[in-house]
Amino acid sequence: MRWTYQAVPEADVGALSRDAGVSPVLAELLLRNGIAPADAGVFLRPALAGLGDPFLLRNLEAAATRLRQAIAQRESIVVLGDYDVDGVSSTALLVSVLRQFGLDPRFVVPRRSEDGYGLSRSAIDRALEEGQPQLFIVLDCGTNSHDEVAHLRSLGIDVLVLDHHRTKERVLEDGLLINPHVAADETGADAAWRNLCTVGLVFKLVHGLLKQLRAENHPVAFSLKLRDYLDLVALGTVADLVPLTGENRIMARHGLTILQESRRLGLRALMDIAGVRPEQGIQPSDISFRLGPRINAAGRLADAAVSVELLLSDDEVFCYETAQKLDVFNRERQDIERKITEEAERLIETHYLTSPGIVLFDEAWHPGVVGIVAGRVSRKYNRPCVVLGNEGDMAKGSGRSVDGLNLVEALGTCCENLTSWGGHPMAVGIALPKLHLEAFRARFAEAVRTLSGSDIAQANLTLAAWLTADQVTPALMEELDALRPFGQANPEPVFGVRNAVFRWAPEVFKDVHFRFQLEDSRGRRLHGVAWKLAHRLPPIGVPVDLAVELNWNHFNGRKLLQLELIDWRPAAGT
C-alpha cells in the first residue's frame, strides 16, 4: 500500500486556524476538503436554514402543484419505489406525508426476481391490479423508462418521476421528471442540491408542497414538522453512497440526530435487533453495516415492501416480528454472499488479476446479492468490479467503483450490448445477454484502463495530516465530531503518526485481530485496535510510522478514545 500526503501551506493553515478559532489540525482538514475559509463556519455548523428553495429544482414546483391538486380532490395515488434503502426510505417518507393529508396511497416495490429493476411492465401491472389511480409516482428509478411511462399516460394516468440516476439517453418526455442531473448546465452544475439521492428529492418535494399549502393556510401543512422526516432522509442518503456535501451534509447531519431520537417503532425495533445503541450516538457506519443491509435484505431475497411496511407501522408487535424477519433474511444473505465472494476471489486470482476492470459471472450466482460481492472485491483488489448473476438468457447484476473512477462514465463508452444500465459514479446496475459477456468484459477493461490513466490496482492510502501521539486527545476528537458525518466526498481522515514505539507486545484476539498500547511523551497511554492485521504484527521497541483513524470505543458504559490501525511501516531511517 502506497502512502501519500500532500502538505497544505502552513500560512493558509495558520490563517484559517486563527480566523475560525479551530486547531491547526482541523484547519488543515478543512482546507484539504476544499472548504474555503469563508465557508468553514457553515460547514462545521450546518443549519437546516441552509437548505435552499425547493423550487430551484427543475419541475419541482409543477410536481408540488400536482400533489396539491391530488390532496384537494382526494385522488387515488400509487407510489412505486425501488427496492434498495433509498427507494424504501423514499416510499416510506412520501406515503407517510400523504397519509397525514388524509390520502391512502397504495405502494408497490418491484420484486427483483419477478419484475427486475425499476419501472418494468410487470411491476406496473401488479401496481394496477387494484384499479387505475389518477396519479402514479415513481421513486428512485424511471429516468430511462420512456415506454413504461408512455403506457401509463396512455391509460390516462398522470406520472411523476423522482430519480437521481444519471443517464446519457434522451430526457423523459412524458410525465414530470425531477432529476437533479438533468439539465445541470441550466441550473448550475455545482448547486448545493445537485447530488441529492431520491429520498432527498422527496424531502424537497414535500418542502415545496408545504410551502404551497401553507400559503393557502392549510391546517395540516402548519402542523406537519418536516424535520421529523430527516431520519428517513439520513437512511437513504448514507446508504446510497452519494457525496455528503452541500444539502446532503445538512440533511444527513441533522437526520442522524433525528434517527437517534426516532419515534418510529419500526426503526426502534430494527436498531434493537441490529445491535445499534442510539444512546451512544448513531454514525453512518451504523446505517451502512447494520440497518441498511437488513432493510436491503428483503428486496434481495424476498419482497422489499416488507421493509416499507416496517418503516410505516405503528404496531409494536408487527415491528418487532418484521425486524426479526429482516434479520433472518440478512443472515441468509450473508451466507450466500460469503460463498459467492469466495468464488469471485478465486476467479480473479486465477483469471483476472491483471485486468484493470473486472467483470465476473456465474450461472449459480444469486442476482440479489452480487452488488454486495462487487463492493467487497472492488475494495480488496482496488479495481472497479461488475459482478453478474444468472437470469434466464440474461446476466444481471451490479458494479462498484473505487475512488477516482466514475462508473457511469466508464459504462457510457462500452454500453452497446447492455439492455439496461444506470446508477451513479460509485455504483451501477446493468443487464446484458449472456452471449455478449466476453465482448463486454474486454470493452469494460479497456474503458477503465483509458479513464484511470495509471495502474489503478496500486492501492493508495491518503493521509489527511501527520500527528504526534501528544495531539491524540479527547479535545481533538470533539473537533473531529464537527466534520461528521463522514462518507463520500467527506472521507473519515486517516492520520499519520511518526516514530511510534510499541513497548508492549500486541494482544492477538480471534486469531486475526490485535489490540495494542502506545505512550505519548508524557507517559499517557493510548489504546488501539487493528482489524485483520494479526498476520502483520509490528516489531517491539523499534520506531514505526502508523496510519490510523480515531474513534470512540463504548464499552461497559465508558467512552474511550481508540486508535484504529489501518497500516504501519518502518519509520524513516530505521
Which regions have little confidence, pLDDT < 50, spanning 5+ residues? none
- In the CATH hierarchy, the third-tier topology of the domain at 55-225 is known as inorganic pyrophosphatase (n-terminal core)
What is the CA–CA distance across the termini? 19 Å
Strand order of the largest sheet: 13-14-18-19-17-16-15
Average pLDDT taken over every residue? 93
Large-scale geometry: globular
Number of helices: 21
**Main sheet record:** 7 strands, mixed
Beta-strand proportion: 15-25%
Helix share, percent: 40-55%
CATH architecture of the domain at 55-225: Alpha-Beta Complex
How large, in whole angstroms, is the Cα Rg?
25 Å
Helix/strand structural class: alpha/beta
- Total beta-strand segments: 19
The CATH class of the domain at 55-225, by name, is Alpha Beta
